[in-house]
Amino acid sequence: MTGDELARLLADDSVTLLDVRSPEEYSGATGYPCDPRQGHVEGALNVPLEVLMVDVRGALREIDTSRLVVAYCHSGQRSEMAAALLRSAGVDVVNYEGSWHEWSRRGD
After folding, report:
1. 73-97 average pLDDT score
2. Which residues are catalytic?
3. Residue of 25, 28, 9 lying closest to 69 (CA atoms)
């Protein structure tokens, strides 16, 4: 999924956006110096990859799976692992490959 595709879905409120980074990355307290800003995509739910790896079924209680789930992280690697875990649990999920590294550069 591209950033433009995600922006269109977010405008329609038709996805559940899942940030699988650490709580510190999500809050903007930490991050990568290559990103022009820190934080998260507005409306994203933070469920770190480590939580999904330990208890994907338990984590699903927090995630609205009635809509398409879009997972992201910093560069798309952790979110691809999260997407694979969620798919194995029967969730309709895609990975936002550009993730925060791309989104942090958007003007919108």
Report:
1. 97
2. 73
3. 9
